[in-house]
Specification:
There is one protein chain. The protein is α/β, with parallel strands linked by helices. It has a single domain, classed as Rossmann fold (3-Layer(aba) Sandwich). Helices cover about 50% and strands about 15% of the residues. The chain has nine helices and six strands. It has a six-stranded mixed β-sheet, with helices on both faces. The chain binds adenosine-5'-diphosphate (ADP) and thymidine-5'-diphosphate. The site of thymidine-5'-diphosphate has 15 residues, from helix 1 and helix 5. Thymidine-5'-diphosphate (TYD) binds next to helix 1 and helix 5. It catalyses: dTMP + ATP = dTDP + ADP. One of its GO terms (biological process) is dUDP biosynthetic process. It comes from Methanococcus voltae. Belongs to the thymidylate kinase family.
Length: about 210
Amino acid sequence: MDNKNIKNAKDIKKGKSKKFIVFEGIDGSGKSTQAKMLADRINAILDYEPTNSEVGKLIRKGLSEGCFEKETLALLFAGDRVEHCKELEKRLEKNHIICDRYVYSSMVYQNTQGIDMKYICDINKYARVPDIVVLLDLNPELSMLRVNDRTGNNEIFEKIEFQKIIREKYLEIFEKIEFENMFRPPIYIKIDANKGILKLHEEIFNLIKEHI
Ligand SMILES: Nc1ncnc2c1ncn2[C@@H]1O[C@H](COP(=O)(O)OP(=O)(O)O)[C@@H](O)[C@H]1O
Ligand SMILES: Cc1cn([C@H]2C[C@H](O)[C@@H](COP(=O)(O)OP(=O)(O)O)O2)c(=O)[nH]c1=O
């Protein structure tokens, strides 16, 4: 498919192996919704980060209570990812795996909080590079409207000005800079997420099915 937002498609071996697919985007961009719909459609296992491991639970506590230094959070996210990646290879022998957030979230959020990008990459160096990354791009004013419709407390990151910076950082790493580094995936797809849930799902499925 001729889509200017798909990069590096030549490198992927369609149908040869199960794929590790990652969804990224600002809070409320629709990652969880779309990751689940795609997982159901292609019969994939659905993962997410922070995970539900003990480290992941600690992270969620830290996010809601604001009780960790940013340096500590960066290390906890990396540690949670090490645990997540431990069994990934084995699980990929049998199933596609879709993950809601991954190392790119650390590159964007922890860097925005002031942690050096090289350090973030170093502490995440054992993270497996995904086959496909889907970036859901959305104006934070729209995403925050969606999030405020959700029940539960807003976490510390769910502030509109912060989300604007996060969106820009995603676009920046996606367009050129850090995606050129060790975590550059064979395929990455940027999608305008400002459309209905079903329409967005069809668009994502049509782009992904070319490669799995
Ligand atoms: N395309 C969409 N249009 C309108 N609302 C949406 C859309 N996708 C998701 N939502 C709603 O917005 C909220 C945030 O979606 P969610 O998938 O949890 O986002 P994320 O995982 O990126 O934070 C949820 O209430 C969800 O039902
Ligand atoms: C995976 C990851 C998430 N985060 C942040 C982003 C989110 O604000 C928060 C919780 O993730 P998540 O529950 O996926 O948030 P949402 O559904 O609102 O998108 O953790 C990081 O800062 N670094 C990371 O490496």
